[in-house]
Amino acid sequence: MCLLEEVLDWDAERIRCRATTHRDADHPLIAHGRLGIACGIEYAAQAMAVHGALVAGTAESGTSSAGEPLAGKPASGFLAGVRSVRLHAPRLDDVPGDLICQAVRVAGDGASALYEFELRAQAVCLLSGRATVVLDGNRRLKL
Hints:
Layout (H helix, E strand, L loop, with lengths): L5 E5 L3 E6 L20 H20 L18 E10 L11 E10 L3 E10 L2 E11 L9
Antiparallel strand pairs: 1-2, 2-4, 3-6, 4-5, 5-6
């Protein structure tokens, strides 16, 4: 399931994406006739995944778009947890404008990353929070 339409801009630390799929009548996350605001976390997770792929793709040349050295491409990944999530609207399917999702990588290494994310429509914040992403899901986590 791909919910994002377009990457608006990105660099080694951040990405901004646009989506219109929240208005689709057959949206795969609709439950009980509505698309709840918490589904915005999936939009943010997909933006983080795209960011990881873009940064990893640049890593093949050895440097980021900012000229910094990068690690190799992760084989797979998953959203390990979310924190400090703030929901500023009850649902997404009645939002008339396009969704703009921004994710900023605030910390991380080759195995995981911490992102702050925000989902907006027409300059209004709909959802925000932080997410921990495990970048190489094929490796066992050491707890």
